Amino acid sequence: MPAGRPGPAAQSARRPPPLLPLLLLCVLGAPRGGSGAHTAVISPQDPTLLIGSSLQATCSVRGDPQGPTAEGLYWTLNGRRLPPELSRILNASTLALALANLNGSRQQSGDNLVCHAQDGSILAGSCLYVGLPPEKPFNISCWSKNMKDLTCRWTPGAHGETFLHTNYSLKYKLRWYGQDNTCEEYHTVGPHSCHIPKDLALFTPYEIWVEATNRLGSARSDVLTLDILDVVTTDPPPDVHVSRVGGLEDQLSVRWVSPPALKDFLFQAKYQIRYRVEDSVDWKVVDDVSNQTSCRLAGLKPGTVYFVQVRCNPFGIYGSKKAGIWSEWSHPTAASTPRSERPGPGGGACEPRGGEPSSGPVRRELKQFLGWLKKHAYCSNLSFRLYDQWRAWMQKSHKTRNQHRTRGSCPRADAARREVLPDKL
Amino acid sequence: MSQREGSLDFQADSSISPLPLLEAKIHQTHSLARLLTKYAEQLFQEYVQLQGDPFGRPGFSPPRPPVAGLSAPGAGHAGLPLPERLRLDAGALAALPPLLDAVRRLQAELNPRTALLRRLEEAARRARALGAALEAVLAALGAEPREPRPEPAAAAAAAAAAAAAAAGAFPAKLLGLRVCGLYRDWVSRTEADLGQLVPGGPA
Q1: Which of A420, B52, B137, B167 has the smallest CB count inside 10 Å?
Q2: Which residues from A are below 8 Å from B170, CB to CB?
Q3: What residue ranges carry the coiled-coil annotation (chain A) (predicted)?
């Protein structure tokens, strides 16, 4: 019987039947004619082939004088009848088929090649496995959550499309000793990932690689060497609070707590803050917050709701010199800046009665600031706080002036007074 | 009461009402059968989809490989006395789990890491649960219990099914189709038969 002719590099892998009590099959009796699938045999049975290769198959009806003959038999592949010119009758009981340039299998359980009698009944079937051997997996990346576990992700070679079921196995071992271990918890963060939950050593490097195997072959990734301490990440900082800075309309204060799982190790941890206006999708990132657990955002718009998130990088853990891995962002926390009490260009309901002289408000303010500074400044390195104090004082005094000028007729100022939160400085 | 069987004749004497607890149990078991009929249909559809065409195509009429120890509800099933029907239902539900387990093992090779494997496992559990509930109803009604299926025979049924499928992937697919079809048919049959026990159900 002509066998399938796979392409040059293919291994036509026949799966041997499992060791099962075939005697029971005999005890139950030979398949009856009415069961259809047992009145003919297709060869080869379940071949594995490379994409683009050819296949020659035969359907041989059993020697039943009353049964069908090769005349009238036909083939279907995945339910579709194959053109008659692909078939030829070899003898009275055998119909041959020649397929060329095979496409990849439609389903991982195999393409269904079926031999039919003239009346359409199924006489026999065989599943074709047409695909590609796996390519080398690459781009392995790993991280450890709080030094307790290790999760790795990789990219399958050729973007994973082999048309055959391909098994990926993540292996790891201690670099200088120990046996190979196999990761067991797959698909934890996506289809090509694995999680090692425990029994990991610190201060000693691991070698990690991925093996890909299917019916047509196998491939192994490059080995990644890493120390668990160099790939540590942690939980997002909990208890993120955002609050106003007194009445300062362009500032918000952000405070958080170190992630508790690593709180005793985060001496050199870095934090990042990002914030955005409520109805915007653009985040602004504040980098280099160093290892503080509070920060003040400045230059914000007055009367605006902001969403704020914080994340942590456990840099320098146990003396690691590597960059560390940022945690996820904390849940967004929102707060609003106070509304502006001073009329800006173009707006505000609180126009002052007399109007301002045209010498310019900035210049006038600076003059006032310098005058105030002479009276109150006593330590030059407290300039930032001093500036805040001055601004707070200016706002208070401006409010008082407005009350004298326009008694109760400034709805925005009134609203601002209601919105002001207790000073948390 | 049927003198021949010494048990309640459900068809002839509809004036006898089951006790409230028994009635609740019958309702419950009927509801379970109804739910499992839906799941069985879903399992069947998921199964044919994963095997690929022509499985699942309208008009697909494959050969039906013999499945040791279980056949489809016969054409005469509906004409049998209700107790007999329920006994046959219980017998089928007891035979199904090892067959579903065998199909799951075969599909673990053909369709590894698919949700189908979990569904087949669930189906086996559900068949056991419905079978046990039905046996309890039968016992409460005083019907004669079905002949117990010896364990080795149940295991042999699964092994024989697996052996038959060892002929190749296509026969394995056919066997699974047959078993999923039988599961669907028998659960649906059980729902219909129990429906006749439910007060107010069809006579």
Answers
A1: A420
A2: 37, 46, 110, 112, 114, 124-127
A3: none
Mean pLDDT of A221-233: 93
Task: Say whether both A194 and A257 belong to one domain.
Answer: no
Q: Is residue A199 domain-shared with residue A271, that is, in the same domain? A: no
Instruction: Evaluate whether ipTM surpasses 0.90.
Output: no
Are residues A226 and A253 both part of a single domain?
A: no
Which of A136-140, A384-388, B7-11 tops mean pLDDT? A136-140
Nearest-angstrom CA–CA distance, B101 and B121: 7
Lowest mean pLDDT among A5-19, A123-137, A358-372, B114-128: A5-19
Q: Within an 8 Å CB–CB cutoff, is residue A16 touching chain B?
A: no
Contact between B62 and A124 using a beta-carbon 8 Å cutoff: no
Residues A77, A122, single domain; the answer is: yes
A269 located within any domain: yes
A251 and A325 part of one domain: yes
pTM (two decimals): 0.71
pLDDT of residue A11: 41
pLDDT at A272 over 90: yes
Pairwise pLDDT comparison (A251 vs A13), residue with the higher score = A251
* CATH number of the domain that residue A194 is part of: 2.60.40.10
Q: Which residue of B has its CA nearest to A45?
A: B168
A372 pLDDT above the threshold of 90: no
Indicate which of B51, B53, B103 best probes the interface with A, i.e. most A CBs within 10 Å of its own CB.
Answer: B53
More confident residue, A218 or A65: A218
Does A394 map to a domain?
no
The answer to whether the Cβ–Cβ distance between B112 and A112 falls below 8 Å is no
Query: Is residue A127 in a domain?
Result: yes
User: CB contact, 8 Å: A34 with chain B?
Assistant: yes
A75-113, pLDDT tens digit by residue? 999 999 999 999 999 999 999 999 999 999 999 999 999
With beta carbons less than 8 A apart as the criterion, state whether A300 and A306 touch: yes
Peptide bond before residue B54 is cis, with ω within 30 degrees of 0:
yes
What residue of A is the nearest CA neighbor of B108? A109
> Last residue of a domain, which of A270, A302, A336?
A336
B-chain residues near A26 (CB < 8 A): none
What are B58-75's pLDDT values in tens digits? Answer: 889 888 777 877 888 888
Verify whether the Cβ–Cβ distance A45 to B168 is below 8 Å: yes
**Nearest CA of chain B to the CA of A223: how many Å?**
26
In a domain, A415, yes or no: no
- CB atoms A109 and B57 under 8 Å: no
Q: Is the dihedral of CA A157, A160, A163, A168 positive or negative?
A: positive
Task: Please answer whether residues B123 and B40 qualify as being in contact, where contact means their C-beta atoms are separated by less than 8 angstroms.
Answer: yes
Tell me if chain B has a CB within 8 Å of the CB of A188.
Answer: no
Nearest CA in chain A to B164: A25
Contact A82/B at CB under 8 A: no
Report d(CA A140, CA A224) in Å as an integer: 7
In terms of residue numbers, what domain contains A153? 138-230
Are both A52 and A121 inside the same structural domain?
A: yes
pLDDT number for residue A246:
87
Taking the Cβ of residue B139 and every Cβ of chain A, the question of whether any pair is shorter than 8 Å is answered with no
Number of domains in chain A: 3
Whether A220 and A259 share a structural domain: no
